[in-house]
């Protein structure tokens, strides 16, 4: 018997050597020290680093989750950096990769520590891992702080994501607690003092109880009774289909129509000689070849160029060079050739295309800068193009601009008056508003339902990710503005949809199963 036990212990040493070697760089047996379960797991100096390791894991997890859910807005992040740095790069993707690598590293260290504790080994974190842990903690905290200051709305996205991911996060957290029950039980049961047992088991049970009860506060519009889901929201192409073609070009809008879009969104600027054209940025630097043609005018406002100058610029080569989206699919040779030959698009041509394809149109109208000939007649000039030059059917126009709204209603009563912010229903009805155009971070199923009862529909922008579109669908949104018409058009139902009864069964079964496993582990 003694020989068999010694043999089992000897055969077990390579496993412990690997754990201690990777965690402490102590590969030899005489370098390690066993501890009795219930005793302190490390020396006083090392006690500081284990909570630091746990803290680094928590902050890196929060940052990775937050940045992973921010994928819907990566293009906005890269565009912000472009405005500050002057060149285009997919910084959002780099940040995601770095966050994932750091999280995997700190998770590996924590798993090694848990395994060493389960094997009764004293913890000693190697100095290189201590530096790594500190760097991960500093990076995660700094990144969270900077994003909170510069991009605080992203926390609203995180809160919205919980309405989809919370049930699965709950299962994951319960599974983690089941796995942790083994080292907790091992050290607690063999502790020589009841105070130590309480210190070990108390926080564990408190967290476990919290996880058992947290579904009571869970809310998601996608947990609903069978047959209560509304129709799928209409899809409005944000600057067309900017993942398939250069934004705000004829090709981009044609791609939206080809993939079954219901409407087109764009941005309108007025040239120095009074020709409304499509351009999102205030300058031409990002989406044209002005740097090659007029290198001294790259910083000049786009509205200060004449149409004769604008129509000669190329508005497509940048798309193939910069690849503005991290998840862009490769273009065919024909599409590449077509993209390279795109030019700046006139508003009148855009409206004729929308009218011929029965597409709704919505656009941001930019007022020209000071000393521009059309600075005070910008709305009149735009209306002239809509009503007289393009002759688009009025009901296809979602008029968003708030200045001179009464005048616009008198001249074009057929426009669908659209407001860009929430307001009391009474005020909206008084202004003949029939649609709200809201950022998706203001999504609220209760508000959408309240406005819908007054025959005011809601459009949410910009929604690219299927999970976010699923949430908008469950919330009752009438339409969404998106960069991914080609993806969302294929979504037949929300990604997450279940009845309250199904959710309750899932919740109760998860809790009961975990209680059974944890009880068995403590009993053994």
TrEMBL record:
GP-PDE domain ranges (all copies): 233-492
Membrane topology: Multi-pass membrane protein
Entry's localization field: Membrane
Domain of life: Eukaryota
Pfam families xrefs: GDPD
GO cellular component entries: membrane
Example GO biological process: lipid metabolic process
Keyword Transmembrane helix: yes
GO molecular function: glycerophosphodiester phosphodiesterase activity
Key words, A-Z: Glycoprotein, Hydrolase, Membrane, Transmembrane, Transmembrane helix
Membrane-spanning segments: 48-68, 88-119, 131-152, 164-186, 198-219
InterPro entries: GP_PDE_dom, PLC-like_Pdiesterase_TIM-brl
Family note: Belongs to the glycerophosphoryl diester phosphodiesterase family.
Protein's name according to its UniProt entry: Glycerophosphodiester phosphodiesterase domain-containing protein 5
Organism phylogeny: Eukaryota, Metazoa, Chordata, Craniata, Vertebrata
């Amino acid at each position: 018997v003694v020989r068999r036990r010694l043999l089992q212990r000897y055969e077990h040493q390579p496993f412990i050597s690997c754990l201690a070697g990777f965690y402490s760089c102590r590969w030899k047996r005489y370098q390690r020290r066993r501890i009795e379960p219930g005793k302190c797991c490390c020396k006083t100096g090392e006690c500081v680093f284990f909570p630091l390791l746990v803290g680094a894991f928590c902050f890196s997890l929060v940052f990775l989750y937050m940045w992973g859910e921010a994928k819907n807005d990566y293009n906005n992040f890269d565009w912000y950096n472009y405005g500050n740095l002057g060149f285009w790069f997919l910084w959002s993707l780099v940040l995601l990769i770095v966050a994932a690598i750091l999280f995997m590293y700190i998770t590996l260290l924590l798993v090694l520590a848990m395994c060493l504790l389960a094997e009764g080994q004293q913890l000693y974190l190697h100095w290189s891992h201590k530096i790594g842990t500190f760097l991960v903690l500093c990076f995660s905290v700094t990144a969270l702080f900077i994003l909170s200051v510069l991009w605080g709305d992203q926390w609203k996205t995180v809160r919205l994501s919980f309405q989809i991911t919370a049930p699965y996060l709950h299962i994951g957290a319960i599974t983690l607690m089941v796995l942790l029950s083994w080292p907790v039980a091992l050290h607690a049961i063999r502790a020589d003092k009841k105070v130590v047992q309480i210190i070990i088991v108390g926080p564990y049970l408190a967290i476990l109880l919290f996880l058992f009860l947290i579904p009571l506060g869970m809310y998601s519009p996608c947990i609903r009774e069978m047959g209560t889901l509304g129709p799928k929201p209409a899809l409005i192409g944000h600057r067309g289909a900017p993942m398939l073609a250069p934004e705000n070009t004829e090709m981009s809008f044609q791609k939206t129509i080809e993939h079954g879009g219901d409407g087109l969104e764009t941005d309108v600027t007025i040239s120095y000689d009074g020709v409304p054209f499509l351009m999102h940025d205030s300058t031409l630097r990002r989406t044209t070849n002005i740097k090659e043609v007029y290198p001294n005018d790259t910083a000049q406002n786009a509205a200060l160029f004449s149409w004769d100058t604008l129509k000669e610029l190329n508005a497509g080569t940048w798309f193939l060079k910069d690849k503005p989206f991290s998840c862009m699919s490769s273009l065919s040779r024909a599409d590449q050739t077509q993209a390279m030959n795109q030019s700046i698009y006139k508003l009148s041509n855009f409206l004729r295309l929308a009218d011929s394809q029965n597409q709704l149109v919505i656009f941001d109208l930019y007022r020209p800068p000071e000393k521009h000939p059309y600075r005070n007649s910008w709305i009149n000039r735009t209306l002239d193009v809509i009503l007289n030059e393009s002759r688009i059917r009025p009901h296809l126009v979602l008029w968003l601009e708030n200045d001179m709204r009464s005048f616009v209603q008198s001249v074009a009563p057929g426009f669908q008056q659209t407001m860009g912010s929430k307001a009391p229903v009474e005020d909206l009805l008084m202004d003949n508003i029939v649609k709200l155009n809201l950022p998706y971070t203001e999504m609220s199923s209760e508000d959408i339902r309240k406005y819908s009862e007054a025959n005011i529909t809601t459009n949410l922008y910009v929604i690219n990710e299927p999970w976010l579109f699923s949430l908008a669908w469950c919330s009752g949104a009438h339409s969404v503005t998106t960069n991914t018409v080609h993806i969302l058009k294929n979504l037949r139902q929300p990604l997450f949809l279940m009845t309250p009864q199904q959710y309750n069964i899932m919740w109760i079964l998860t809790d009961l199963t975990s209680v059974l496993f944890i009880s068995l582990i403590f009993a053994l």
